Write the structure tokens for this entry.
Amino acid sequence: MENKSWKESFTELQRLVLPPDTNIFNDLYGGRLVEWIDNVAAIVAAKHSRRRTVTGSIDSLFFLSPVHMGDIVHLTGRINYVTRTTMEIEVNVHSEEGLTGTKNFTTTCFLTYVAINQDGRPTEVPGLKMESEDDKERFAQGEKRSHVRRQNLEEVRKRIPKPM
Ligand SMILES: CC(C)(COP(=O)(O)OP(=O)(O)OC[C@H]1O[C@@H](n2cnc3c(N)ncnc32)[C@H](O)[C@@H]1OP(=O)(O)O)[C@@H](O)C(=O)NCCC(=O)NCCS
């Protein structure tokens, strides 16, 4: 499989915050934003791997500023790092006030997508082309996070509760 550039899967999405997306205070639900984040990342994962993929984990998800009804939400998804079967995708989100154009940084997070075959077993994904110093730095940082993530996954697997 040939290595691919992050540019081949980079994805942008914009959404207008409407009443079904908000709580009684007219602010965007966190859960709705997570749905949009997962959607952007799913597109990146599909374009990079051209395989069936599933969300494995979402980490370092911080909501840094509220988003209000009528705001425009901009999401970008970019692949940073891959292993044999997984892809780390960074999603950044900012909001824009429709009437003034004022922008606020809202959220950043990392999603790990796992490519699977017809039997649901992890399967290979293309590697990432390193075209700039920034690409190399992102890959190196992704590798560090991947080690931590694997340790966390092992911990979680040890704590799986017995069925009631
Ligand atoms: C993700 C899934 C396919 C992994 O299957 P598995 O047999 O446990 O996979 P393995 O243990 O062989 O791991 C394969 C790779 O995926 C990584 N991985 C496995 N589960 C992961 C998870 N939940 N989050 C992040 N990475 C994960 C492993 O670390 C490993 O990475 P590596 O190649 O870099 O070492 C399986 O757990 C699954 O189907 N989960 C449900 C996914 C889903 O339905 N998501 C939608 C939300 S409900």
